[in-house]
Amino acid sequence: MTRTIDIAACATDCHCLDARRQARAISRLYDEQLRPSGLRATQFSVLVALEVGAGAPLAVLADTLGLDRTTFTRSAALMRRKGWIVSARSEDGREHRMRLSAAGRRKLYEAYPAWQRAQRLVDRTTSVPKTTRITSPTA
Fold first, then answer.
1. Could you count the other beta carbons within 10 Å of the beta carbon of residue 56?
2. What is the C-alpha separation between 91 and 48, in angstroms, rounded?
3. Over pLDDT 70: what percentage of the chain?
C-alpha cells in the first residue's frame, strides 16, 4: 500500500514556518524603529530585563529572554564595552550578575519612544497574542 503525502502543505500550511516568518518580520520592524537610538531589538530587550530584574544571574536573565547563554553573553559583552551594563555584586562567586549603568539606563529611556512606535505598528498590523512578557527574573 502506497501512502500519499502532501509535502507542499509543509511549505504553505506550516504553523512553525509561519510563526518564524512573522517573528522575523516583527524583529525587523523593531530594529528599524530602534536603529536611530543605536540599539537593536535584542539589545533593547536585554536593557529592559536588566532594568526590571537588576542584579539577576546571567543564566536567569538569558532564560527570561528566551536566549541561550552564549548568545546572551555575546550581546552583554558588546553592551558592556559600550558602557551600558556593568557587573553586579554576587554573594555566590560562581554566579555572574549584571546591572544597567547610568549610561545604559539613559540609552534605554532614550530608545523607549522608538519601542512605543514599534509596538503601535505591530498592534495595528498583526494579530499576535500578547502571551510573552519580560518579568522580573527570580534569582
1. 23
2. 23
3. 86
Domains (range + CATH), the chain:
29-124 (1.10.10.10)
26 touches 128 (CB < 8 A): yes
Q: Name beta bridge partners: 95.
A: none
List for the chain the helix, strand, coil content (%; round to 5).
Answer: 60, 5, 30
How many alpha carbons fall within 13 Å on the CB side of residue 3? Answer: 3
Query: pLDDT tens for residues 3-34?
Result: 888 888 877 888 888 888 888 999 999 999 99
pTM of the full structure = 0.79
Dihedral pair phi/psi, residue 12, rounded to 5°: -105, -25
Inform me whether the pLDDT recorded for 133 exceeds 60: no
Question: Please, is 123 exposed, middle or buried when counting C-beta atoms within 10 Å of its C-beta (0-12, 13-18, 19+)?
Answer: exposed
Q: Are 20 and 100 in contact (CB under 8 A)?
A: no
Q: How far apart are CA 111 and CA 38, in angstroms?
A: 8
Would you state the pLDDT for residue 139?
47
